[in-house]
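Quick one:
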Amino acid sequence: MKNNTIALLLILTTTYQINAQIHQNNKENSNNESGLRIVGIIGHTLVNNEDLDNVFVPSWGLDIEYWFNNNWGIGLHNDVEIESFVTKNSENDEIERVNPLVLTIDALYHFGNGFVITLGPGIELEKEESYYLWRVGIEYEKDISKSFYLLPNLFLDQRFDGYNTWNIGLGVGMRL
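Output:
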């Protein structure tokens, strides 16, 4: 948990510093990027286990986002881990997770040069037990045409009564 807190603080500090440096440039060169976007993502989820082996689980994602303006948006981010795995919950009991589905509603902040910070609540749904969670992450939008872009991303999902995961993925997005 201490390492996760340090990682989160580093991400937020770096984000603040970069934003302060490029804010003026972003304001001068911005174009209107508001509207609906859809992103398909393929990735891997690292399930952190202190007593068990760490597990990498393949995942698929579908993000639906609405951008109010160049800097602010909201997104429904959906991920499914496509393998079963065993981890431990907050009471240190082993639990089996069978294809859990993670749904989050994230605030999105584009702070320049393609970087986007995501932050929001969510839930992990699974047939035996579901967990509420908090997600924080960073994405990078790289345009490949006027309507399409690549989207590498990194997320930390911290379950309130369970375990945490790191998600790394690559998506292809479309502006509608």
